[in-house]
Amino acid sequence: MTPHIRAGSGDIAETVLLPGDPLRAKWAAETYLDDPVLVNDVRGMLGFTGTWRGNRVTIHGTGMGMPSLSIYANELITSYEAKTLIRIGSCGAMQEDIAIRDVILAMSATSISTPSRGILRDMNFAPCADYGLLSAAHAAAQSKGSRTHVGGIYSSDVFYDERPDLNESMTRHGILAVEMEAAELYILAARHRCRALAVLTVSDHLLTREALPASDRQSSFGDMVEIALEAAFA
Ligand code: HPA
User: Fold this and answer.
1) How far is the centre of ligand 1, averaged over its atoms, from the C-alpha of 91 (Å)?
2) For position 26, which CATH number holds?
């Protein structure tokens, strides 16, 4: 038990999928895992452990933003010995050749700040994905025929950004998409020698203003869950 997770020791698998939304954790666990068992509901942050093709997996919500993700990832790693952590989430596209529903595999995650900034002090640490997971996820996405992009993303602290020039600068520097969690996940994984990856589905487009209708979200997110599971156990 930790301050934010009531699971007993042994209730959490070594492989953890991390959606931001706790209800998406429930949906993914009920849809993709065999025998999912609720292992956490503290503060309504749902976590389930089950099996996928015989492999134990936990799917646990993180909430939105890096401070919230940091709490759950820290506790999953340091108290429950999670070793492979894959964020599954949505993102806003920042390049014209990316479409709604496309899958983004985040090779690196740029940020202005993360909860780890105080630890890293003046260093511009480069948070990057685990290469083995990244390459396995790419292979899984290719074999599914999902429209997939691999590259850098931007982990922002703000959803309602008052600085459009920053987004424009990210677009000009080839950043594929914006979300709010991956940079801290990658830094924590580096610090604790875990494997991490963010597999994202484009839910909205910052250049075209197009957005995925809420009713389409769940079906579009299925590919991302399967890609994450296949990469974890490749
Ligand atoms: N900004 C930040 N995070 C996001 C977005 C966005 O536009 N879309 C999905 N996650």
Assistant:
1) 5
2) 3.40.50.1580
